[in-house]
Amino acid sequence: MAFQPIVDARDRSIFGYEALVRTPDGGGAADVIAQVRPEQLYRFDQSCRVRAIETAARLELRQRLSINFFPNAVYEPATCIRLTLMAAQTYGFPTEKLIFETAESEQVQDRAHLMRIFRDYRSRGFLTAIDDFGAGYAGLSLLADFQPDLLKLDIALVRGIDRDAARSAIVRGMVQIADALGCTLLAEGVETVEEYRHLRALGVPLYQGYLFGRPLLETLGTLTPADWDALD
Tens of pLDDT along 72-87? Predict the structure, then answer.
């Protein structure tokens, strides 16, 4: 597992870390998922959750831990969450620190099923997140059905936003929608200071991307006050 920081620009803190699966030689999540056969997806999903929690506990992670899940692999939320709860208890990781977000590669086959999963997770005290918002299935109609704790703006909306009036207008509108619905907006894939400063001016509070830290294997990256000074 690799961990990438999610930062909160409002108080210059680490909000949490996203756990990202990697190949033994450091290849990305897409390289791993490409090797998973459909009949292995449930076991893969469960194994990733347990490994993420075990590693986070071993690294003494004190912030939130965001775990990707595969809606199509969850046949019954209450049953499938048991192993996750057992892992949290075994390794001493607080369940209230867990965030579950839809996996980037997942195309939801049954939206009603995804809503049941999200609602079950929320009832257990987990935070929820819709990943890649603004791309593919993760659009306004999904948001109308369920309002997650976090909305992760798709990288396609973030890239070059400081030079793009259309993207700026869309994100400005998303800030207003998120505020009205009680969601927190997170810009993912932020790579330049210019993108960050522009998004800050638009009112986005949370960030993730290479500008704040790359995913590190078995390591929790940090930001120093000097790092924040350079960004602001």
Answer: 667 677 777 888 999 9
